[in-house]
Amino acid sequence: MYSSSMTRFLFAFYRQNLKPSLKENSNIMFAKLDHFPRSKLDIAKKKYEKLYTDNLSYFIDEYLTALPRENYKNLVIHIGYFTQIRVWSFDINPYKDTQWIFLGIYSEHYPKKKFIKAKVQNFIKILSDKKRFELIELLSKKPYYVNELAAELALTSPTICYHLNYMLDLNLVSLERENNKTYYSLNKAMVKELLTNASAILLNEHV
């Protein structure tokens, strides 16, 4: 799993470099970044196009079920070269009628169940640390900024930031700037999702 700094870099990179070439009135298309080696991207693009055509229900279940449910006129599935990213969704101005998703070139090596299991394992690691557990409890009550959390938990600010970076990697916390301070709040929906997935995996139920 990528660090939060790498995640921010990748997000900025794709926001800057993704440029649509939609056909008029198109509903779905596959695309790729042209300045990466063509052979591998072309092969991956054709492979996912074939999977989409031959087994639509599997493609939707494996790659599209977690996407936002807003009504978009177009869907662009962008095949990219960062190998361990599965599905990422974007809104790119000025194409607000278009939902962009990024699909890693080797995503089939990271099937949904394996990906979910890895996230659950990292979540359990977070919960097994007493201070991180207390951090989640605090953030469930209200947003905090780093110095407040440090005071509450009797830790240094750098240590709090270290713990928060782990939580950012799993999308457990969100942040918002206010009055020159960055406030962190708990993503309760993600906590519930990870707890549900943990239960399903441990009880051998469908994820």
Commentary on this structure:
This protein has 207 residues and is an alpha/beta fold. It is 50% helix and 18% strand. It is built from 8 helices and 7 strands, in the order αβααβββααβααββα. It has helices at 4-17, 38-54, 56-64, 112-128, 130-139, 146-153, 157-169, 188-202; strands spanning 28-32, 74-80, 87-90, 98-104, 144-145, 173-178, 181-186. The protein has a 4-stranded mixed beta sheet. A hairpin with a 2-residue loop joins strand 6 (173-178) and strand 7. Helix 2 (38-54) packs across helix 3, helix 4 (112-128) crosses helix 8 (188-202) and helix 6 packs across helix 7 (157-169). It is elongated, with a radius of gyration of 19 Å.
Strand content: 15-25%
Task: Give Rg in angstroms.
Answer: 19 Å
How many β-strand runs? 7
- Helix share bin: 40-55%
- Low-confidence parts, pLDDT < 50 over ≥5 residues? 18-26
Task: State the helix count.
Answer: 8
Strand arrangement across the biggest beta sheet: 1-2-4-3
